[in-house]
Design a protein that fits this description.
The protein is an alpha/beta fold. The protein has 16 helices and 8 strands. The chain is flat. The relative contact order is 0.10.
């Protein structure tokens, strides 16, 4: 678990303007550096090579980069709109953080500022012949970088914002979050499997929103200073409000309470980093949208079911992990919640589609066979629920019989060694 400062720094560094600003400053520094190094070059070198054409090249770069940047931004906005209608709005943040897109846009902006500053410096006489030569060499290097960025951007646009690309990004984010939680199932604290002591006092939130990050080190330090145990009630992804507890602790003084609240980062929406359930929910939302009457795309729902199986296959029975913060007690993420988040909306929206119901039952069977000690009970419950919805939706008797056969197989898996399932 990273601290609050590092987490906020990571959020800032993911913004497109940070990389664009860095590349822009690099372009300005490069253009101005040409005027600083020219005294160290031979006096007639610029005249021999003939660097007078640099001003024309800079003019071309300045005019074209502004147009290309504007056009690229319009492509990004169009891609965001497409993701909203074809997948889920919750995936837009992942597209905003796309490293290739940010690097390409930053290269265009940096080249534009480089050319602009170079033109101004040329017109004001900052460069002599030798300085123009240095600027010419730098211009060729910048031009090469722009050409490479354009080629990379063209290749990237073949997939950027497409449905499969978006689903892949959400799956990767959900898998990474689940793996991170499996590495620290209790965020470095002791497992809290029951209710906190009745003598403890709840620490209520002072704002309404979703818990995005918890600074466990800060909470541990406060607990050590107070010499008392803390029992967390809100994990990343939990919706809190002024009547909802963040944690429980005996003897909460006002000063300690304010510092403990500061360890919880609360925002308007959920984030993928420490919230494995959010990625699963985003994938399921894409399947529900595909199953809506307006879209009617069961193939996408079937693809999402396969992706959900891959994500949930990362889940294992949380072991007694190393305790980094001995005074903190943290509730686990329940596999019941993950199964419900993943499959109940699909079972509801695809109740009348036999191909979706068959793949859903096979997915539940696969999870139950891969990790019966974790998923057997939960998948059996979800399988029975999906079967009941399909029956109520009026599927044919033969179709119900096929679904019931699969559901019975899920129900019989209550333990044993994992086996390979065929999807």
């Amino acid at each position: 678990m990273i601290g609050r400062f590092r987490w906020n720094l990571q959020l800032v560094l993911r913004k497109v303007w940070v990389r664009a600003l860095a590349y822009g400053l690099l372009g300005i520094v490069t253009a101005l550096a040409a005027g600083a190094v020219h005294p160290f070059l031979p006096a007639d070198l610029g005249a021999r090579i003939g660097a007078d054409a640099v001003d024309q090249i800079l003019g071309i770069i300045a005019s074209s980069m502004l147009a290309v940047t504007t056009f690229s931004l319009s492509i990004m906005v169009t891609a965001f709109g497409g993701v909203t209608t074809t997948a889920t709005p919750r995936a837009i943040e992942l597209l905003k953080q796309d490293a290739t897109t940010q690097k390409v846009l930053a290269t265009f902006i940096g080249a534009f500022l480089f050319a602009l500053v170079g033109i101004v410096a040329l017109k004001t006489g900052v460069y002599g012949d030798r300085g123009r030569l240095v600027l010419f060499v730098a211009t060729i290097a910048v031009l090469s970088a722009v050409v490479l960025a354009l080629l990379r951007w063209i290749a990237h646009l073949m997939d950027f914002g497409r449905l499969s690309d978006t689903l892949g990004r959400v799956e990767a984010a959900a898998t990474a979050a689940l793996r991170s939680r499996m590495a620290m199932p209790y965020l470095g604290g002791h497992p809290l499997r029951g209710a906190p002591p009745v003598t403890s006092t709840p620490l209520l939130a002072h704002t309404t929103g979703y818990v995005q990050h918890i600074d466990m080190a800060q909470l541990s330090a406060l607990a050590d200073i107070a010499g008392r145990e803390m029992y967390l009630a809100a994990l990343p992804g939990t919706f809190v409000h002024p009547a909802a507890p963040l944690l429980h602790m005996a003897g909460l003084e006002d000063d300690l309470a304010d510092k403990a609240r500061a360890a919880f980062s609360i925002g308007e929406g959920r984030t993928y980093d420490q919230d494995p359930r959010f990625g699963v929910i985003a994938l399921t939302e894409a399947a529900s949208r595909a199953l809506s009457p307006a879209v009617n795309d069961p193939g996408t729902a079937i693809e999402v079911i396969g992706r959900l199986v891959r994500v949930l296959s990362e889940w294992t029975d949380p072991a007694e992990a190393d305790v980094l913060w001995p005074r903190l007690h943290v509730p686990p993420i329940r596999s019941d919640d993950l199964i419900e988040d993943a499959f109940r909306p699909i079972a509801r929206d695809g109740a009348s589609l036999i191909e979706v119901q068959m793949r859903l039952q096979k997915a539940l069977l696969a999870l139950a066979e891969m990790a019966p000690q974790v998923f057997a009970t939960q998948t059996a419950r979800a399988s029975a629920d999906a079967l009941a919805r399909a029956t109520a939706a009026g599927l044919l008797p033969d179709e119900i019989a096929a679904l019931r056969a699969l559901s019975d197989r899920v129900a019989t898996l209550t333990g044993g060694q994992p086996r390979r399932a065929t999807l």
